[in-house]
Design a protein that fits this description.
Strand content: under 5%
Number of strands: 0
Order of helices and strands: HHHHHHHHHH
Oligomer: single chain
Number of helices: 10
Shape: globular
Radius of gyration: 16 Å
């Protein structure tokens, strides 16, 4: 029963549309009406700027982290085991299909990374490095997001944690699915590139 409760809590945490909140409170802008219309960090960067994009990215990462830490903290009071990975998926679903924003959210990248941060900080560091390097080389946020998921899946295969490996593989497939329009734009060379300072 506690897993159902944790799953609902994780979904609700994931549903908090930080891009929408930051846009409306800080800039009086509804990011759903600009750029890609997506409630993820990438659109926040494009529409609201670097400062807002960083805030949204960190907040979206922490959705996944908090979701997997809640059961861990609760284990001091209840009998809770490794199901926290699965509970973290509810935060991703909440971020992607948020009840607080008419079920239209982000593409699951940052919150998925937050799950990894909550269960394996070294793997999180590896995926951050992969993301930044890939983004620097190709200048596509979408491509960097998808390739980072693939690299995370490969690395997790060697960590002797089958559940984590399966979870990351599932999240990677989901992230790639959520980027299907971006893939078409990359092929057609119409996907926007980022510029470095």
């Amino acid at each position: 029963m506690e897993y159902v409760i944790f799953g609902v809590i994780a979904y609700l945490i994931g549903s908090i549309p930080f891009a929408l909140v930051v846009g409306k409170i800080g800039y009086k802008i509804d990011v759903r009406e600009h750029g890609s219309g997506n409630l993820g960090a990438t659109n926040a960067f494009r529409v609201l700027g670097t400062k807002a994009g960083i805030i949204v990215t960190i907040a979206d990462i922490l959705k996944g982290t908090v979701a997997v830490i809640i059961p861990l903290l609760a284990s001091y009071f209840f009998d809770v085991d490794v199901m926290r990975l699965i509970i973290g998926i509810f935060a991703v679903l909440g971020h992607t299909y948020p009840v607080f924003a008419k079920f239209k959210g982000g593409k699951a990248v940052a919150t998925s990374g937050g799950i990894i941060l909550g269960v394996n900080p070294l793997l999180f560091l590896a995926i951050i490095i992969t993301f930044v390097l890939t983004l620097y080389l190709f200048k596509y946020v979408s491509l960097a997001s998808m390739l980072t998921g693939v690299v995370a899946t490969i690395i997790s295969f060697f960590l002797d944690d089958i559940l984590l490996c399966i979870l990351i593989a599932v999240l990677t497939i989901f992230v790639i699915y959520r980027h299907r329009d971006n893939i078409k734009r990359i092929i057609n060379k119409t996907e926007p590139k980022i510029t470095w300072m």
